[in-house]
Specification:
elongated; alpha+beta; CcmE; five-stranded mixed barrel; 150 residues; OB fold (Dihydrolipoamide Acetyltransferase, E2P); iron; 7 strands; heme binding
């Protein structure tokens, strides 16, 4: 083997090792990857019950219902479709109707979602990127425009 062939073999071996390492990392992460969806995307894609995901949109006005203990249920909407969310725990201080929210949990089917975490926006100018993109796509959110009463 001459010098050029050894260098080529070394590069090929390093490439193969990197390829195998990338494959192992992706295989290990397959259960931890969580996709973001809006209510309309859930309706269009027909997700299977038990799918772990993030759901984002606006908390629908008049939809918050508090139950015993720390149970709360509310609807997340993008103006076109709505998904009912059930959550048990403390809600963020800035959680309220008409505000942007991102929930993470399990889709239960039939327009129901069981959340294990809820994130609310922290001021009037912030909106999670995924929520803003979904609402812009539906034409229901414009940056810098506040609704009356906010």
């Amino acid at each position: 083997m001459n010098r050029k062939q050894r260098r080529l073999m070394l590069i090929a071996a390093a490439g193969a090792v990197l390829f195998v390492a990338a494959g192992l990392v992706l295989f290990a992460m397959r259960d931890t990857i969580v996709f973001f969806y809006g209510p309309t995307e859930i309706a269009e894609k027909g997700l299977q019950p038990g799918t772990r995901m993030r759901l984002g949109g606006l908390v629908e006005a008049g939809s918050v219902e508090r139950g015993p203990g720390q149970r709360v249920s509310f609807a997340v909407t993008d103006g076109k479709n709505t998904v009912r969310v059930g959550y048990e725990g403390l809600l963020p201080d800035l959680f309220r109707e008409g505000q942007g929210v991102v929930t993470e949990g399990v889709f239960e089917g039939a327009g129901r979602f069981r959340a294990d975490s809820v994130l609310a926006k922290h001021d009037e100018t912030y909106m999670p990127r995924e929520v803003a993109d979904a609402l812009k796509k539906q034409g229901h959110w414009q940056p810098g425009v506040q609704k009356p009463g906010q």
